[in-house]
Amino acid sequence: MKRIAVTLSLVIAGILAAFPATAAQQEVIINGSTTVLPVMQNAGEAFMAANPDITLAISGGGSGNGIKALNEGLCDIAMSSRDIKDSEVEQGRAKGVIPVKTPVAVDALVPVVHPENPVTALSIEQLRDIYAGKVTNWKDLGGKDYTIVVISRDTSSGTYETWVELIMKKEKVAPSALLQASNGAVAQAVAKNKKAIGYIGFGYLNNALKKLDVNGIEATPATALVKQWPIARELYIFTNGQPSGAVKKLIDFLVDPQKGQKAVSEVGYIPLQNR
Question: Which helix (H) or strand (E) is 240 found in, with range?
């Protein structure tokens, strides 16, 4: 009996030794911006293939929700399409969280319409008047006699806050605007409605949408990089303090020109090294 027990112990030890990665599996929880989400998903697949001992749990929900989750210890990385607010920094510090920012890509926030809409360009002032509810018909902008259907991101979104900061200035988005929970939802709503206008991150542009020039400038990687495009921004991730361990491995991967930055380009955003 003793011999059988010893043999069985050796077999179990051999099985455990054959699967060390399972025993040492690490999970990195990532939450936040739906703008940054495609970058993280694309880069994340390549990262996990190169690091089978690390699992990434990635979810959207908006920049504000991601930063809130980081401050509450519910995630390891917050994705954000805007910078962190002073109030969010204070909330984090009150809970022992010191948010540290890392840029991961450059983005151009782009107003879009249905491809059959004859309007091709608007000024910042016209966009502001549309979203404030002061201009309500496309005929006043060179289009057809249609009531404008205004599509916007929800207020927890960094994309919404960037739009308010750079386009709306002191004006408020009209209550009649239809709020969407993600870039993808905005893109889908505009693609299905000939009367609609919306705004999305550069990586969400597709053939079902027509992008509009703003102030006579076309949204391109080149105009976004030099900030000639008036609605350009950086995309970020935030960690609690300087990253270490599996989180640092992921961040190093994201900013590597041949790895994560390649993934940035693949999903339609602008790599950092192009700056």
Answer: strand 232-240
